[in-house]
Amino acid sequence: MTVRRTALVTGASRGIGRAIAQRLAAEGFDLTVSARADRPLKDTAHELRAYGNRVESVSADMADETQVQALADAHLERYERLDALVLAAGMGAGGELADYPLHRLDTMMTVNLRAPFQMVQRLLPALRTAGSSPSGLGAKVIAIASITGVASEPGLAAYGATKAALISLCESITVAEGAAGVSATALSPGYVDTDMTAWVHDRIDPAEMIRTDDIAELALAICRLSRHAAVPNIVVSRAGGPLWRG
Ligand SMILES: NC(=O)c1ccc[n+]([C@@H]2O[C@H](COP(=O)([O-])OP(=O)(O)OC[C@H]3O[C@@H](n4cnc5c(N)ncnc54)[C@H](OP(=O)(O)O)[C@@H]3O)[C@@H](O)[C@H]2O)c1
């Protein structure tokens, strides 16, 4: 009997997470998809079932520890293993370093770092199960970080710090769990054309931004690598200008 691979995708109702969920569904993964708002998430889950896979949707706010735990537990109740954990839910709030509100930093740290950390902790046994499976593909954690986590950008000190921490977490996962077949990759793009980048449309044409499909293509490639290859971080820069900017 062929064992079906499973993935859990946060931030799956739109943008980058949704594009990745689509690629994984087309690749034959059974899925748990998550976001806060129930309706768009259910619509996404319905569309993904067109590929003939099992797709469960679980609403959860990554700012709430109890809901993060419930999301991980919901996946474990439905599936015995986790081949790909895609951490795409995230938030960004710009502001100058000098007077950035600390409560905003706290919330962003919780959503962008603490929740991914908690998800990985809770789901490690299921990742290890997939990591040692005979397919030889191992288990992957894929976290959507940001180019600002690699090269800082004016007005994005807090956001960049959370994403730098997420990149570091990915490295630590691979170091700690690589022997068990579990590795992590941060995908660190510049501006991608999604709802999140609507606020910069006055200075950057969305047609010149990275496409969600570009990031999804990389996520899929990571999932196809053998357990012997570890890819810590992939920076994706916007074409047509300096390399190290959003
Ligand atoms: N777009 C870019 O230029 C860009 C560049 C670099 C990195 N990133 C990162 O890529 C990731 C995805 O961004 P995107 O551009 O695809 O954004 P998006 O289109 O706004 O989608 C964000 C997704 O995350 C969910 N989400 C947001 N806050 C959440 C929370 N507190 N708890 C649970 N789910 C939450 C949203 O659904 P609900 O609102 O219903 O919860 C939605 O499904 C983020 O981590 C972002 O920081 C984006």
From TrEMBL:
Name of the protein described by the UniProt record: SDR family oxidoreductase
Protein family: Belongs to the short-chain dehydrogenases/reductases (SDR) family.
Phylogenetic lineage: Bacteria, Bacillati, Actinomycetota, Actinomycetes, Kitasatosporales
Gene3D superfamilies: NAD(P)-binding Rossmann-like Domain (3.40.50.720)
SUPFAM superfamilies in the cross-refs: NAD(P)-binding Rossmann-fold domains (SSF51735)
Keywords, alphabetical: NADP, Oxidoreductase
Origin superkingdom: Bacteria
Source species of the chain: Actinacidiphila oryziradicis
Keyword 4Fe-4S: no
GO MF term set: oxidoreductase activity
